[in-house]
Amino acid sequence: MIKPFKMKHDGRDMAGALVLVSMLMSAGCAYRLPVFRPPFQQQIKVVARNPENYVLRLGIIEPHDYHVPGDGRVTLDIPSYRAACSGYLIDKILVRPGADPFSKKRIDVVVGGKITRQLSLKDISRLPTDSEGYHLLRVRTVQ
Fold first, then answer.
1. CA distance 32 to 40
2. pLDDT value at residue 129
3. How many angstroms separate the CA atoms of 57 and 76, rounded?
4. For the whole model, what pTM was predicted?
5. What are the start-end ranges of the E strands in the chain?
6. How many whole angstroms separate alpha carbon 133 and alpha carbon 118?
């Protein structure tokens, strides 16, 4: 004869389960506001045969064109910004990451009216620098 399976429950198991269920039922979503990024300047040196043929277009807030001089050195004025809020379940589990303008492709390299390359501020910050702190942006010569 087969005996039925009996579970043994002590008060601690039931109390722990009750606490867990009540936490999940009472917890909701939380939003975290990222830190504010103050305005700053980004120095770029366009390395090309004729850098004066290039324009750097910054597309944060409203587009602004920076015409590259003959020495290739440009200083972009980056306005202040804040990334979007991220959503968390129970204030621990990320369910919706906020968009970060630092990672978006907001800098266009324009030559002859055509966009030849798009970069983010993160891409620019990863470029090598010269002895004066300019990030070296190497571009292909366009015929």
1. 24
2. 93
3. 9
4. 0.67
5. 29-32, 36-37, 40-47, 54-58, 64-67, 73-78, 81-82, 86-89, 93-96, 105-111, 114-120, 135-138
6. 21
